[in-house]
């Protein structure tokens, strides 16, 4: 359900309200975040493909070196292993972008849903609608740290307190991921 609203700040009429202006600004924020994510996704996709091709070439190089003169090619084997290790490390670093994209997707989705609720006079003053919005937003999170941050904000924590809780749990999750195995995991 898309709400079509335009700002009326230049020519206010009897229908003008802060709510309408808030909704317009929320849509603007969501659109800006969405466009930034789309631009970032394409460049990361291109980089991921490039690193995958480099890794495949490195594997071919290592196989060729293994079949050649061992005494002359030890340095080449080490270099190929170093290349492979760097490529794998770079691919894992893309998880950072993936997490940002996931969080920004959650933000744009929440802003869109909030805008629709605020823009609907039938839903705006209905506490059950607000509760459904909160449950819907919370259910959209896949990372435990995000759910905890949400819960603390809903319980009245300040942004700073919620961020501290988020960072503590996010760092704890990262440490557990590093201790587990070397598999690349995208969210």
Notes on the structure:
There is one protein chain. The chain is mostly helical. The protein folds into two domains: 18-120; 141-187. Helix content is 79%, strand content 0%. The chain has six helices and no strands. It has helices at residues 18-66, 70-118, 121-124, 127-139, 144-154, 159-180. Helix 5 (144-154) packs antiparallel against helix 6. The two termini are 27 Å apart.
Topology:
Layout: H1 18-66, H2 70-118, H3 121-124, H4 127-139, H5 144-154, H6 159-180
H and E string:
HHHHHH
Number of helical regions: 6
- What is the rounded Rg? 24 Å
Return residue spans where pLDDT drops below 50 for at least 5 consecutive residues.
none
Q: Mean pLDDT, rounded to whole units?
A: 76
According to DSSP, the number of beta strands is: 0
Helix-strand makeup class: mainly alpha
The CA-CA distance between the termini, in Å, is: 27 Å
Q: What number of structural domains do the residues give?
A: 2
Biggest sheet features = none
Helix content: over 70%
Coarse shape: elongated
Tell me the strand percentage band: under 5%
